[in-house]
Design brief:
The protein is mainly alpha-helical and 375 residues long. The chain is built from 16 helices and 3 strands. A 3-stranded antiparallel sheet has the order 1-2-3, covered by helices on one side. Helix 4 packs antiparallel against helix 5, helix 7 packs antiparallel against helix 8 and helix 12 packs across helix 14. The chain is globular, with a radius of gyration of 21 Å.
Length: 375
């Protein structure tokens, strides 16, 4: 039987993927399953089993994305952005409502959250836009207006759901991408100063529960059984875990159901209670390795599209991790941000693993120079 040369081509591409990153992601998936098993009181149902299936699906998608030529993502960047915006419009018209927010499209197999997808497609479209920019044009303020416009459109749709945390994250991603594109520092300072000056005006447009979150952040004891309950229980969980933790299935705050949303946004508080400060530091260490890898891929990539794509996607991972951990420790207001790769959630995990697939794809094509083009 003759051997198909295409098989060797795929094997050669697979060998180009960084095995160390795959191992790290596998460890994160295992930690997620273990913590969800503990959150359910020692049962794989209802969370750990589903999470493992989603993780396996996400890793498959990640490998397919990593093996795809980089110029395919360059060509399709604007198309994918347009699709994600259309999905946000569908959410506005016929989305599924849950916990007071209209954020999902019910596909019967699972619920799709388009606001997660738009984070990826925004980075893709911004990376394509700046790929063709000269250093001279990038220094002109007017050149950055189109990126601001393609950020405002999905941000407004996300705000209507309402999801203030994701809307702010979209602006942070765009701000970082504009900064690394070559804009002058004094212009960045001017934009930041303007944003801070507009904060009192933004307060007027916040909903009551959003204002409560900010006031609770400033003084958690003002309503200990209401808006301050989540953060106070989270702090108790952190403190009671100590250095080494109480052990799996032994956390009083999580197992006795004092800690709310222990399987999603507050899973880091449960991990710290059961595995202690040491467990938390080890998890941060795994995140740091992934973030370091992402920024190194960006640094060594020779084409602008790949460089900005890897930088933007790695920044998303960093912001996810930093905001969630700071939020559950009471250092930032609660905004509803999952812990990446650990919290229970379908679209969030699939989006993050697809993002890693793109970073691995950039790594495979890091030697391509500016000749990368979109016909």
């Amino acid at each position: 039987m003759a051997l198909n040369p295409n098989n060797f081509d795929w094997l050669q591409k697979l060998r180009q993927i960084n095995v160390f990153v795959l191992i790290l992601i596998g460890i994160m998936g295992a930690i997620s399953a273990i913590m969800l098993y503990s959150a359910a009181g020692g049962d794989v149902s209802p969370w750990a089993q589903k999470q493992l299936l989603r993780f396996a699906m996400g890793v498959t998608i990640m490998l397919l994305v990593a093996l795809t030529p980089l110029h395919f993502w360059l060509r399709q960047a604007y198309v994918l952005y347009g699709v994600s915006v259309v999905l946000l419009v569908i959410v506005e018209i016929a989305g599924t409502i849950g916990m007071g927010a209209q954020r999902w499209i019910d596909l019967y197999v699972f619920r799709l959250q388009p606001s997660e997808l738009v984070k990826l497609t925004l980075v893709l479209s911004l990376a394509r836009y700046y790929h063709y920019a000269s250093l001279e044009s990038a220094r002109k303020f007017i050149f950055h207006l189109p990126p601001l416009l393609i950020t405002i459109i999905p941000a407004v749709l996300v705000l209507k759901q309402p999801d203030l945390g994701t809307a702010l994250l979209l602006f942070m991603i765009t701000g970082v991408m504009i900064f690394v594109s070559g804009i002058r520092l004094w212009k960045v300072g001017l934009i930041l100063t303007s944003a801070i000056a507009c904060m009192p005006l933004a307060w007027m447009f916040l909903r009551d529960y959003q204002k409560n979150r900010v006031l609770t952040f400033l003084n958690p004891e003002r309503d200990p059984l209401g808006s301050g309950y989540h953060i106070l229980q989270s702090k108790i969980a952190f403190g009671s875990g100590g250095v080494w933790g109480k052990g799996l299935l032994q956390g009083s705050q999580s197992q006795l159901k004092f800690l709310p949303e222990k399987h999603t946004d507050f899973i880091f508080a449960m991990l710290s209670e059961e595995l202690g400060m040491v467990g938390g530091i080890i998890l941060i260490g795994f995140y740091s390795l992934l973030i370091f890898y992402g920024y190194m891929v960006s640094l060594h990539c020779r084409n602008i599209f790949g460089k900005l794509l890897a930088f933007g996607l790695t920044t998303i991972l960093f912001l996810y991790m930093f905001i969630n951990m700071a939020m559950v420790m009471g250092l930032l207001p609660i905004v509803g941000m999952p812990l990446p790769l650990i919290s229970y959630g379908g679209t969030s995990m699939l989006t993050l693993l697809t993002g890693f697939g793109l970073i691995l794809c950039v790594d495979r094509h890091r030697h391509l120079r500016r000749g990368l083009s979109a016909p």
